[in-house]
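Our consortium's second objective concerns turning raw sequence data into structural hypotheses that experimental partners can test. To show how far this objective has progressed, the report includes one record in full. It was chosen at random from the queue rather than selected for favorable results. The single chain below, 175 residues long, was entered without modification.
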Amino acid sequence: MTNQALIDALRDAEAVEFGEFELSHGGTSEYYVDKYLFETDPRCLEAVADAFAERLSADDKLGGVALGGVPLAAATSVAAGVPYVIARKQRKEYGTGNLIEGRLEEGEEVVVVEDIVTTGTSLVDAIEALREAGATVDRALVVVDREEGGRENVEDAGVEMEALVTASDLLADRD
């Protein structure tokens, strides 16, 4: 899939909006990428899953960051035929009390998938949780890098981050 085809899919899903938006880290932005719109649109979700699957090998395991990375991990798991685990934001207080859901073996390599990276905090937290559970994490695949320091924070955690689309890509032809 070409970069432009993915940008078109995001736009067709009406997931890129312009205006004044408050972001989760407290900052503001003139644009917003609504992960819930692109992750619930079958065409866009399939495009993202196929693009992620192209970057995986048959022996990879995925880790989806709750909440937004979970549908991406599930769809990519099906597209690539590889298993996945879920990294919760916090340990559940009932049942098993797991922070990582799914089967994970000590030393297993996990490629983390995430929707949008701004500061990278959620992604780094998930990487740390997976490592604490015994995983080896060296790679992360993200849909959109907002280019606001997230890549640097993820790389500081020792993880190579590959974005399908950057903010520069999304905003390149904005009138």
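The partners drew two points from this record. The first strand starts at residue 16 and ends at 22. Strands lie at 16-22, 28-33, 61-65, 84-87, 100-101, 109-117, 136-145, 160-166. Both points have been shared with the crystallography group to help prioritize constructs.
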